[in-house]
Amino acid sequence: MKIFCFTLALFVVGCTSDQPFALRGAPSQGPNPKVTPTVQLRISANGSPVQEAHSVTVQAGEVVQLKVEMVRPDGSVTDVTTDAKTNYFSTTPGLLTVGPAGRIAITSSIEALSGPTGRILSVGIIYGKPGDREIGATSVMFSVPTQSSTDRALVLSASKTVLGIGESAQLKLIRKLASGGTEDITLSPDVQYRTASESALILEAGAHVTCVGTHGQPEDSISITALYHNLSDTLTFDLRDTGPGPGLKIQIGNTTLAEGEQTKFSVRSVRGDRDLTSRRSGTTYVIFGGSGTPEPDLLTIDDAAGTITATKSLRGYNRRSPIVFARNDDLVGWIALKVTRASASSSHVKP
């Protein structure tokens, strides 16, 4: 059996299929509970089975779709690729970006992948959590051979890549055609953009990005990945804790909501204290929930009534941490919320 050895943001795994592995981030079980896998995870990449101890050869800029199947001891199999209990983790976020449902994007940065034999990247996959009857873990290695910079079929750029808090930039995505020409596909509906950290770098409609934080550090580096069919490209932004900051203030009655709960909110300009809550004033809203792309189903924003409602969309999660981002012309503002599972004692409306 393959031995899993990879360090993750939320999990640390070191196991075979019959040895315990340690999970972090499970307070009900202590800081580092030991968990024994009860199921096997079988992986396919772009429809081809991934063999034990073998890497998957991919090209810089390629997009790979993983399929995860849970194999129980009795031999029964369930596809858990899109299951909320299945978590994917990149060991090298700047080089390999992991999206929901097992979509993997390899950076096209020639400099980052340079070397006599290319680079080996990997993604960790965990199904379940401590206390579950079915739980398993595995990892997939990707071999990226060295290539020439002229081979890039997709190029992502921005109006500027150094941003202070509250500053924005315009993305641009160019595709190289077989004829030798190029095509601007920045706003193509077939393009999906993903941020490596929405708590630092927010994606907006129209291929805009805005710096909203630096994780408490003076400087930070966060990447944006553009995916177009089976191609991708990644661009890294240098973030600074200086900058104009938010021009909008989002005032909210309660920042922690259970499923189905509602709270009052308003959006006002920092200068002049104008009420800009209504979309009729030009204010737009984007909701993120941790996947790197907008998740509008997490919250319902009623700008006319001035309310935010936590919809019942947690699925297999115990809690989510959505970010509400607002823009009105050049003014931006944002706020982080928490959504938890509903309890019998929860009231429906909070002030």
- What's the CATH topology name of the largest domain? Immunoglobulin-like
CATH class of the largest domain: Mainly Beta
- Based on secondary structure, the structural category is mainly beta
Using only C-alpha atoms, the radius of gyration works out to 22 Å
Beta strand count:
34
The amount of beta strand, in percent, is: over 45%
Shape: globular
What integer is the average pLDDT? 82
Distance between the termini: 55 Å
| Main sheet characteristics | 6 strands, antiparallel
Number of domains: 3
Poorly predicted tracts of residues: 1-18, 22-32
Helix % is under 10%
Number of H/I helices? 0
CATH architecture of the largest domain: Sandwich
